[in-house]
Structure formats: C-alpha cells, structure tokens
Amino acid sequence: MFFEPGSSSLSSSDRWVYHVFLSFRGEDKRKNFTDHLYEALKRSGIRTFRDDDELPSGQEISPQLEKAIQESRISIVIMECRDTIGQIVLQLFYDIDPSDVRKQTGSFAEALKVHEERFKNEKEKVYWWRNVLEGRC
User: Fold this and answer.
1) Top-confidence residue, 76 or 58
2) Of 68, 26, 25, which Cα lies nearest the Cα of 47?
3) Which residues belong to any copy of the TIR domain (predicted)?
4) 42: confidence class by pLDDT, cuts 50, 70, 90
5) Are 82 and 89 in contact (CB under 8 A)?
6) Do residues 78 and 89 lie in contact, with contact meaning Cβ atoms separated by under 8 Å?
7) For range 32-57, the mean pLDDT
8) Which residue has better confidence, 62 or 31?
9) Sign of torsion, CA 74 79 84 88?
10) pTM, rounded to two decimals
11) According to the model, what pLDDT value does residue 6 have?
C-alpha cells in the first residue's frame, strides 16, 4: 500500500509533521533495507522521519524520538501507536515468511519464548504482542 504525495490520506494537518516514522533495529536492516525504503519514500515526496541513532534493546526512547513518533501519520511498525494516537501501522516482513509471524512458528516462536522469559512479570505485554502478530488486534 502506497500513498500519493499530497493525497487526502496523507495531507498535512496541525497534528502530522511527517507522513511516515521509520525506525528499525539492526545493522543490516539499517544499512540496506531501511536505507532503500527511506530513499524510495523520499523520492516519492513522502515526508519521512528516520531514526538514525540505533536504540539499544531495552532502553527508553528519547523525548525527541517520542515526539517524532507522535507527529507521524504512519509508523513502520510500532503497534501501540495505532491504538493510542490513531496512526496507520504497516507491518513489513523482511527476510521472513509472514506465516511464521502470524502462526508464531520458526524464529518468531523462539523470539516470543525469549520475550516471555524477559517479561515474565508483564505477561499481558507478551499476550498482546501475540494477538497483534496473529492479526487479532
């Protein structure tokens, strides 16, 4: 799904400074996939905020980064923003079979087990992630 620059679905308003907030963790994605996506969005005239500083896992995001997220019409991919501030959220799958995500098999099953251990005192968070990945939310 792509939007035409200036279309009503991405028109400027007082609330949206950026059309898209783009942030991915991981060196390979940041230097390959994310760069290509960012350049394609930019060439299309889509105002995109790209987080250039890699946020280490488990660290809090800065107030400036949180502001950029809230000022973006679309996030790729932060699911909480869909519910809390009404953003459109696009799920992108890079080098993975989307059925592994939805069915939570393969590497996604392993990652969720790690998260269940890491967030054992916040089980509702992992339950919510599972529902989102299955397409229930």
Assistant:
1) 76
2) 68
3) 16-137
4) very high
5) yes
6) yes
7) 80
8) 62
9) positive
10) 0.56
11) 46
Q: How many CB atoms within 10 Å of residue 130?
A: 16
Q: What residue type is assigned to position 77 of the chain?
A: V
Single out the catalytic residue among 39, 54, 66, 80. Answer: 80
Whose structure tokens read 């390979």? Answer: 28
Q: Quickly tell me which residue has 């994605």 as its tokens.
A: 29
Closest CA to 11 of 23, 2, 3: 3
Strand locations in the chain, DSSP E?
Answer: 18-22, 48-50, 72-76, 88-89
80 counts as catalytic: yes
The topology (CATH level 3) of 8-89 is: Rossmann fold (3.40.50)
pLDDT of residue 29: 52
What is the distance between the alpha carbons of residues 46 and 6, in angstroms, rounded to a whole number?
Answer: 9
Six token digits for residue 93: 């799958």
Is residue 131 pLDDT above 80, yes or no? yes
